[in-house]
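Practice problem: Histidine--tRNA ligase
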Amino acid sequence: MGGMLLQSPRGTRDWLPEEAYAKRLVSEKIRKVFESYGYGEIITPAFEYLELLKAKAGEEVVNQIYYFKDKAGRELGLRFEMTTPIARIVASKPDLAKPIRFYYIQPVWRYEEPQRGRLREFWQAGIELFGVAGPEGDAEVVAVTYDALTESGVQEFEISVNDRRVVEDILLSNSVAQERLADALRILDKLDKLGESYIIDEFEKIGVAREKSSQMLIKLKESRLDIELSTPEGKQGLDHLSRVVDLLKSVYGVNVKVDYLIVRGLGYYTGFVFEVKPKTSSDVGSIAGGGRYDDLVSTLGGPKLPATGMAIGVDRLLEVLKLQGKPTITYNEVDVYIIPLAKKQETVAKAVEIAKKLRREGLKVIVEGTDRSLTKALEYASKKGSRFVIIIGEKELSSGTLTLRDMKEWVEHKLQEEKALEMIINSRT
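Answer key — structure tokens:
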């Protein structure tokens, strides 16, 4: 076999125990916040019908779907985000009590160029809120995001908010044809990555003069909530955005920045959108984002149902925490390492008996199972981060004692079994 087979596929990564533990700690903090707001966990299949995934994704994202045919010839694809699969569930179950609050912590897949903070397989933690049409729903989603990121330990992040209806108004007022709105939004979404020259060049390809494009970008760079708009939809969007901003500040105590250049890349967004970026690690990109998608459930065959949601990029979040020196984790794969000497049946049986008692107390315990020397076994216990080592030989067996070595304090005790176990259990408090 070639060396390539020993590597994970491009754009993926392996999670070794310490890394997996850090991810689990952060995910559990996020989960706790989600559940504190009344959201219930949902799990969907890793793959869906390709037609479903393509429904409202947008051209660029469709090209990133991992798709395949099964043995029966059905066209399937790995989910590239969680909103569409969850909207499918809601569309198929009209009797669910409204509003519906779901959360998830799941992996997703996109075939795009791997780079820092962007893998082909990555984890998302997010929420979806169905059945709340007003700004209260969007404010709640942003507040949950703020609390989840704060609880996870992120320092100094900025939340930027917008409403796509405002952007569409400005685009239409600057010579973008109605039928090219989707293209224009897709182009704008690349401003951060590719710069203004690219945007102006691309707008020229869809019929917008370069001067108009420059004027449009100037207006989109404003951050006021009293800008002049032309269409009823744009004015509705601005009013909705203003109310969300006010609710976040006055009710939740969350300050946000208005940024009319935030549009989000997915095609199903219909109004309010937002993104979160760390102030100290800008090259990582956004660590969370979301918005309103009022037409998605009905597009999939369900009832007309307003919806809003968000997703946190767990991999990027961990990268930011690492750059900030967090989380500070004391990771050990095992709490107690038990070494039965001579590997006689009696000493092994006693080791297993003690291991069972300690495991019932919630401790992680390994019983040495090889014939290596005591020195080698102790080296292994140290590498595994074991706080305690219990040594059981014939002397210990006959006297009802245990040799207990504290690997942190570098002291060794010979104690009665009950006393030794009590010392180990009490060391956690």
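Discussion: The domain at 3-173+229-323 is CATH 3.30.930.10 (BirA Bifunctional Protein; domain 2). Students who identified this feature from the tokens alone can consider the problem solved.
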